[in-house]
Amino acid sequence: MSDDRTGLADELRTLVDRRLVDPLEILLDSPELLTLLREHVAAQVGEWTHDLLGHDPAAAMSTASRLLAALFDGDDFSPPTAWWQSAFGQIVARRIGYPGRSALSGVQAAAMLGISRQGVHDLVRRGKLGTDEDGRILTASVQERLAPSGHEVAG
């Protein structure tokens, strides 16, 4: 679990730095302020990581939602396929699913699960993934596949 925490913390620190702090550095001529901001982000990352990996589903969902809103602009959240296999992507997949989507394409479900489209097709055929009336994969069923045994999916 320590490696999970470290990997997630490092990833979050890098994401916040690249997507939020670096652009501010371009706009603001205040090295002292940016140093303080980076120090504050470094301290805050520990709290975010604790929430995301903790046992409180509401805290995890809230933190993940806030981070997504700040880090990924726009109303149409469409991360690249590989993002779902990142530490933060896997947390989002387990805790929230695919934000704003109750059903997914086979490609999206495969990306979240880290398997091939054929693997998704096989899981659907065997009744291990649910589909809607249009044949799209239910986000909740993907979350259930990702949930550790014995843990209920928040939502």
Account of the protein in words:
By secondary structure, the chain is mainly alpha-helical. The protein contains 7 helices and 2 strands, in the order ααααβααβα. The mean pLDDT is 90. Helix 3 (57-71) packs across helix 4 (87-95) and helix 5 (106-113) packs across helix 6 (117-125).
Structure described in brief:
By secondary structure, the chain is mostly helical.
Number of strands: 2
CATH topology (fold) name of the domain at 77-155 = Multidrug-efflux Transporter Regulator, Chain: A, Domain 2
How do the helices and strands follow one another from N- to C-terminus? HHHHEHHEH
Name of the CATH first level of the domain at 77-155: Mainly Alpha
Radius of gyration: 17 Å
Strand content: under 5%
Strand arrangement, major sheet: 1-2
Terminal Cα separation, in Å?
A: 24 Å
Mean pLDDT: 90
> Biggest β-sheet: count, sense, barrel?
2 strands, antiparallel
| Count of helix runs | 7
Overall structural class, as computed from helix and strand content, comes to: mainly alpha
| Level-2 CATH architecture of the domain at 77-155 | Orthogonal Bundle
Fraction of residues in H or I helices: 55-70%
